[in-house]
């Protein structure tokens, strides 16, 4: 039996950065018409391997062949010519242009030197049809959900006669239906013979879509497996190099003051809090030491509510009291001074400062809270940084590393450390484990439960229902900008949560 020729074959690829061997003699191959998942912990080298394949980084050593011919890229344009297309996690499109313009941007068909708009629209429509996407090419990109925008990014990527499509964590901000739509598109491209490289920290998704897996650990190749032939538990063990036991450890104490029957004052109480166009008036209580999970689809109002509570956006109705004292939080600064901190879901725009070091990023919120004229002593900064590097497993464990040189998941850990470091009374975490690997996720969940046991209140927003169920004492569910449920978390199943998120029909059974 002769094996088909791989469309991508990378042999003994090495890439080093100052102080870090990001890839050490890694070999990797992909066949036409397969979905291949690149797996590994945060910092394992996945994005680096992708950047070698797409010509963004040049390799220190190793051989690359595409459909049997040896290549050495000197830039991304060359990789594209060979039919390698990439969609990065942050969609880099222009929301104020139409869908069609975005798909064709920079390579519009021309007639007599001018852009041929008719041909541009027709070509864009063809590409959308190829993916079976029913989107009007003339509609404004910004009018669509992030998920649709991501599919448009794929339509754009596959224009260049794609043989290989690379998706680096494409699903981290999509809800279940949107992931299903993306997978439909992936399957139809696969049927056309495109090889798809899919990176995700969601094991369920990997097992659903991938035919083959390659596991990296610490810049080295662990192995290549058929998805059907490797058990999840073995896969995780290969990724982290040891058995994962942490998940079972998470035994949270029951929280008995949640009903408020004993007259305890909630740390946070919102009554009729709302803002037109963002969120319908809601009532919410969060007690000291309580973890309140917040679930709901993207755009259901989860983030909007968090932004109002934390002083970023102003409500136009209702009232808020903190620790029994009424008063609005008019700015994030005011919120912080009353013990309320918000860690944004948007790590690029509102999160880490890429040009600063790990130490400076971690100390940032604490410093802002103290005022810029009262510098935190260097020794204190060092202690803080060292303890969070340890607790969250930030890699490389170097306080002086620039955050822009960290892998995606490690940047997320730095952002989390910043908010944990100020030890707020109420911490609102918006998608804190997005892009974080299985092992680190378990560590972070443990930390959150610990902090709550020591009296911190937490609002935990996540699209991952298993995670919400594991952590929360109580769960609040948002749908269409309204709070549709507020239930104790005892023996709720993922299915019943999903049902409430979808239509609220089994609210009574679940509570
Ligand atoms: N430009 C750079 N300069 C210095 N070090 C870098 C650079 N890019 C990546 N690294 C380092 O190389 C290693 C591999 O990073 P990479 O981004 O490939 O990880 P990853 O597997 O994609 O992780 P994640 O799941 O967190 O996205 C990390 O230790 C990272 O800090
Ligand atoms: Mg990465």
Structure description:
With 511 residues, the protein is α/β, with parallel strands linked by helices. The protein has three domains: 8-240, P-loop containing nucleotide triphosphate hydrolases (Rossmann fold, 3-Layer(aba) Sandwich); 244-339 and 424-511, Rossmann fold (3-Layer(aba) Sandwich), CATH 3.40.50; 349-423, no CATH class. It is built from 19 helices and 22 strands. The strands form five sheets. The protein has a six-stranded mixed β-sheet, with helices on both faces. It has a six-stranded mixed β-sheet with strand order 18-19-20-15-21-22, sandwiched between helices. β19 (426-430), α16 (438-453) and β20 form a beta-alpha-beta unit. α13 (358-370) crosses α14, α13 runs parallel beside α15 (408-421) and α14 (378-392) packs across α15 (408-421). The radius of gyration is 24 Å and the shape is globular. It starts with 7 loop residues before the first strand and ends with a helix. The model is unreliable at 506-511 (pLDDT under 50). Residues 17, 20, 22, 40, 42-48, 395-396, 405-410, 437 line the site of adenosine-5'-triphosphate.
């Amino acid at each position: 039996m002769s094996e088909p020729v791989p469309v991508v074959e990378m042999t003994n690829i090495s890439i080093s950065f100052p102080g870090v061997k990001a890839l050490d003699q890694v070999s990797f191959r992909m066949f036409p018409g397969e979905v291949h998942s690149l797996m590994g912990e945060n910092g394992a080298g996945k994005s680096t391997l992708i950047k070698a394949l797409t010509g963004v980084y040049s390799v220190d050593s190793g051989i690359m062949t595409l459909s049997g011919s040896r290549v050495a890229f000197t830039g991304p344009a060359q990789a594209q010519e060979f039919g390698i297309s990439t969609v990065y996690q942050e969609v880099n499109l222009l929301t104020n242009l139409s869908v069609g313009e975005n798909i064709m941007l920079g390579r519009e068909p021309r007639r007599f030197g001018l852009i041929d708009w008719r041909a541009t629209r027709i070509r864009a429509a063809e590409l959308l049809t190829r993916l079976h996407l029913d989107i009007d090419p003339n509609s404004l990109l910004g009018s669509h959900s992030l998920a649709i925008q991501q599919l448009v990014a794929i339509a754009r990527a596959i224009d260049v006669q794609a043989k290989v499509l690379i998706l680096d964590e494409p699903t981290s901000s999509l809800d279940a239906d949107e992931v299903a739509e993306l997978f439909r598109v992936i399957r139809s491209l696969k049927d056309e013979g495109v090889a798809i490289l899919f990176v995700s920290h969601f094991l369920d998704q990997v097992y659903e879509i991938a035919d083959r897996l390659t596991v990296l650990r610490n810049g080295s190749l662990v192995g290549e497996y058929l998805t059907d032939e490797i058990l999840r538990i073995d896969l995780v063990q290969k990724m982290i190099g040891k058995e994962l036991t942490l998940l079972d450890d998470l035994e949270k104490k029951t929280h008995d003051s949640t009903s408020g029957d004993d007259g305890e004052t909630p740390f946070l109480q919102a009554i009729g809090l709302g803002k037109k166009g963002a969120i319908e008036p809601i009532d919410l209580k969060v007690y000291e030491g309580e973890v309140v999970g917040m679930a709901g689809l993207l755009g259901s109002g989860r983030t909007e509510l968090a932004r109002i509570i934390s002083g970023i956006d102003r409500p136009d109705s209702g009232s808020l009291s903190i620790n029994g004292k009424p008063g609005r939080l008019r700015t994030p600064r005011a919120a912080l001074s009353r013990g309320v901190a918000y860690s944004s879901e948007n790590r690029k725009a509102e999160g880490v400062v890429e040009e600063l070091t790990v130490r400076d990023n971690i100390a940032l919120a604490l410093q802002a809270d103290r005022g810029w004229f009262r510098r935190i002593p260097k020794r204190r900064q060092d202690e803080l940084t060292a303890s969070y590097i340890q607790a969250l497993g930030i890699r490389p464990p170097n306080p002086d590393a620039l955050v822009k040189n960290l892998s995606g998941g490690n940047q997320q850990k730095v952002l989390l450390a910043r908010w944990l470091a100020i030890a707020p009374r109420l911490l609102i975490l918006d998608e804190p484990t997005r892009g974080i690997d299985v092992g680190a996720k378990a560590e972070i969940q443990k930390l959150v439960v610990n902090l709550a046991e020591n009296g911190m209140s937490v609002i935990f927003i996540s699209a991952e229902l298993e995670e919400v169920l594991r952590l929360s004492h109580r769960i609040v569910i948002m749908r269409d900008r309204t709070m549709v449920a507020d239930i104790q978390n005892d023996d709720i199943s993922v299915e019943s949560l999903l049902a409430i998120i979808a239509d609220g029909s089994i609210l009574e059974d679940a509570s």
